Automatic annotation (TrEMBL):
Highest taxon above the source species: Eukaryota
Predominant place of localization: mitochondrion
Family statement: Belongs to the CMC family.
Entry's Gene Ontology cellular component terms: mitochondrion
Pfam short name (any one): Cmc1
Keywords: Disulfide bond, Mitochondrion
TM ranges: none
Protein location: Mitochondrion
Name the UniProt record assigns to this protein: COX assembly mitochondrial protein
InterPro entries: Cyt_c_biogenesis_Cmc1-like (IPR013892)
Length: 76
């Protein structure tokens, strides 16, 4: 049975400083999950297209995505 990557976070929170020793199984599962995404050509293309879209929008507006998505204050 594969572990959920969130299990690593829970293990670390529960184990404190002993996480290095106690969470090896969860860490290995997390690494396997991340490596699968890293090596997936479809995921790479999806990320590349998202990046290019954000870059194009930045070049048009000069405003980074994070700044564009922030809400303006309602009281002015």
């Amino acid at each position: 049975m594969a572990l959920d990557p969130a299990d690593f976070t829970k293990c670390c929170k529960d184990s404190g400083i002993l996480m290095v020793v106690k969470c090896r199984k969860e860490n290995t599962a997390l690494k396997e999950c991340l490596t699968a995404y890293y090596n997936d050509p479809a995921f790479y293309e999806e990320c590349k297209m998202e990046y290019l879209k954000e870059r194009e929008e930045f070049r048009k507006t000069g405003i980074p995505t994070k700044k564009r998505l922030q809400k303006l204050p309602t009281s002015m």
